[in-house]
Amino acid sequence: MMQGRKDFTDKVVTRFRLSERVTAHNLYRQLAELVDWTFLYEETRALYSHTGQPSLDPVVFFKLVLVGRLENLVSDRRLVEHRALRLDILYFLGYEVDEELPWHSTVSRTRQLFPTSVFEHLFDHVFAQCVAQGLVAGHTQAVDSAPVKANASLEAVLEKGQPGTSGPFLTTVESATTAPLVTAPAHQLRNLAAHHARQAARSSAPGAQHPKARLLSNKTHYSPTDPDARISMKPGKARALNYLCSLAVDTAQGIISHVQADFADSRDSLHLPRLLTGLQQRLQSQQLRMHELLADAGYAKGTNYALLEAQQVTAWIPVFGRYKAGIDGFTYRAQTDDYTCAAGKVLSFRKYDTTADGTGLKIYWATCSDCQQCPLKAACVPGAKRKQLTRTLYDAPYRRAWQRQQSRRGQRMRRVRQGTVEPVFGNLLHHYGLRRMNVRGLAGAHKTMVVTAVAYNLKKLLKYRPNRQASLALALPRPLLAADRRCRQQSRRKQPHSGLPT
């Protein structure tokens, strides 16, 4: 057998059909047939004029950004370069091989043109298909959040300025007219200044191993590139300018039921009411009702517990470790709303109060005469006239959540949450291009997160195959009973004997 050699001739192909080069089981061919994209024309019709040059097709734009999520591409430039090399992507977009593709700047401008509502309608459209196919139950939802790196550098942050003031954190920058003003409360600024003073003294002390670090805070600094980005850090990682991605995932098949972008400098518990509102509206539009909500301790807050109970939703949210369901040495009576100490004295409810951040409190205390004559005063309240207890205003919802957490089902629901929403976040961050924002602003971040969730749900919808159990019915003979056997034996005895050997 002689050696073969393949020579390449760059010739013009006279007959070529793109649909024949894309197989039937290709991902993008199935996506083109799965979703009816024509509703996007009606959604975006009011955004365009009746005259002028034709713009980028809205359906092509949304298909383009979905391709970027499915191919794990963050940059629009790389997306444009990548799609020109793939026949299946060209077929999905509706472009011929020799047809000129839109530029990356056109994709960016179109993203800014479309409002958030158009992206939300696309998400609702795909979510409705998931409900129709039986992938969404709606009964139990798992909630979590994760930081996503913003399209801005932490090294370029500037100090906030307030005209007419001075101080270590109120210095006016060169662009004081456009710089955000310091809006943090005075007590937070005092605490921050004291903390920074301790850090500076520690770094400048003799024998310090580390150089003096730059002390940054969202209360005193901002990013001129992306003012909506916030300085935050994840345990075990360095600080960075981030956005917060909040998700709700249905526990039936892992379909994303809600997604939103939030500021990364606040606690997760503050974002739950808005997330819950959007989630409930989407489920109600599909005639679904949520009965249970799973979340981690970051969402533990008295107002959240009360809100979920008011909506008749069971909250499987662990309370903070510092919360104590009871107070050592004191017994609570719910009927009279008071505490009884070890000496038998009653601490009645006296008044409501609030903390510096607005948290509601309930104050209980005993009378001065009871404490002054008590033999346990030296150990209980040695330097005060009376014993006082401070409890949260939502102590009853906290107590019920704590009891659910300690139950056996509470431990199982914790594992359900970990196995539902955490793998979804891992896929979005590592395989769907959500590791970093390619846009700026909270609205742009929200659009990117919504498109990423749409791409994830479409992939789940394509892979879903319902379990169909094949059943085969066989007609078996009825088992003989004892009476049937006796009847058959008697009938055989009555038959005449033929005399022939059997």
From TrEMBL:
Q: Where is this region: Disordered?
A: 195-231
Source organism, top-level taxon:
Bacteria
Indicate the segments annotated as coiled coil, or none if absent.
none
- Pfam families attached to this UniProt entry: DDE_Tnp_1_6, DUF772
Q: Which residues form the signal peptide?
A: none
Taxonomic path: Bacteria, Pseudomonadati, Bacteroidota, Cytophagia, Cytophagales
Q: Which InterPro entries match?
A: IS1182_transpos, Tnp_DDE_dom, Transposase_InsH_N
Where is each Transposase DDE domain found?
Answer: 340-462
- The molecule here is called IS1182 family transposase
Transposase InsH N-terminal domain: residues covered: 17-112
Protein species of origin: Hymenobacter nitidus
